[in-house]
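Hi Q.,

Before the meeting this afternoon, I wanted you to have the zinc ion prediction in hand. No need to reply - just skim if you have a minute. The sequence and ligand are here:
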Amino acid sequence: MALRRVGETEEMKVDPAKGIYVEMEGIMEVRYCEYDDYEAEDFFHFQKVNSHIPDDFCHKDREEQRQNIFFCLVCNCDLKSIIPLRDHVMGAKHIRKALEKKRQVLGLLADPQNKPKVKKQKPPKGRVNVSLTLEARLRDMDDPVLGLNAITEYRNGDGRRDPPWYTCSQEGCKSAWGNSDDMLNHVKNHKHQRNFLKLIYPEDPRIDSLNKNELIEKALTYATDHNCLLAEDRDYDSIQSQKDPALYKKLSTRPQDWSEDKERLGVTNTNCIPIGPRKRAASPPLFDEASWRSTPFLTDTQLVQESIADHQEGVGSVRQQVARFKGSTGDQEYMACQDSISFYRELFEIELQEIPRNGTQADRDLLLADQALLKDLRELEKELAHKGEREVMEVKQINNSLAQLEQEMELYSSEPGQRAYTTYKERLSVLSDELNTFNPEQEGYRAKKVEFKTRMSVLWRSFEARSESDVVVESVHTPPATGSEPRPRKTSAQRRQEDRVLYTGLFKAEVVELVAGEVKARVRGYSDDQMKNITIKIVQEKIMNAEIEAHKELSWDTFRFTDSVRGRIRNWLEIYLKAKYGQTS
Ligand SMILES: [Zn+2]
Ligand SMILES: [Zn+2]
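Predicted structure with the ligand bound:
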């Protein structure tokens, strides 16, 4: 099998953003698990037909019997969610193993002629005098040198003896930088020329496809036309000059392998770079054969730095996942967060075992980074647990307050204007507000909220009734009401009718919610309007009529949509919908 040459690998680079997770067969597979069995599909084929993997691809089904997972054949591990998958394929350890596999398959190991090349080094320079300025060097040659206005020269204050440094801010030049020799090579280079021509002719799409010689040709034409080809004709004054010693220091102490991309990605280890979330899309191609073939394994500083950055980004994504989490302990979202945390914890723990303790500086960097990230993960786990409990706590608290008020209501009697009345009304208002701002994410708690609201309405109603009643209830808070005008009393039939309206209304509201949900989940092939009609019909004809009928001899304030009523109706619905609409899971 022939090796692709660099440049031809373009479309095959691993890039999850483009849906490319593997470069070839035999690296990973998708496993469609059912009970204890599974069917596997090679990921290389899978990604060809699935340009986008839905977020819930790995979610378990309701009965938890079926689940899709990704299995990494080279690392021998499974990944149960898309986020860990993305991070996994971009992780240094996986890339190393995938590359080993690739080498085997491509026969690189068997073919000494294709032995990994030594990392491309800049050719050793002759004795170049870097204290010469760019201008001084340029004045020595007639060449098409364009875009000098994008160049900035940095001097160390007025210190003339310190060599100048340069940057190129021309669009597309990726903040090329270096000493005068580096910058001379840069401005003569066809890439700089291409970027210059693109700025001059923004509408001309051909510039992108010009080869090196064509570019030099075009640059030459431009320079001739604009009379700046000869050394003496160039506008050297357009080179900007910077004399800030701080900037000079920053530039002159930059690590040799600094690049704009790396800085943006947080890969280089200079102290001016904030470590933070990085944009994966801008990541340098990690699966470029040429560069990887020559990259030594984990001890290489750059690889380690990239690995650390990957880990940090991974933990960053977990952090976001936990921040977005709104469910409660044990639900699907919770488990997904927990999975991500476990994934990284395992990854770091395995890596920590592999790092030699008396290794290089890079090893020590990785060790420290992994330890710090493990600590972060522990914090995230705590935060997750805490958030998971939040709704439970809220539900408990509201329930307690309601129970307290309900109990006191038994003893309450007062009239508007009296202290007990005012206090009680205040407490009811506070709890009502609290209940209104309680917006649980969990389905079970949404039902709870409806229950709470029912109880709240009952409380308000009793409160109003008792506040205008002339019934005297012994209470430490309230002396018997005296001297007030007797209010018109409602007949018991009127009260009963009011109760009926209130309680059946509340009951129905919850039945509608329940039925609508079940219909949506179980009935297929109907429009939204049709489903609405089905819901209304079921609620009225199949449920409410029967429930009301069964209750009409009893006191209406006991007509409540309790958990057991919910369960009973839900069970009936399941059977009914299955029989009638034939689709159920
Ligand atoms: Zn792997
Ligand atoms: Zn440039």
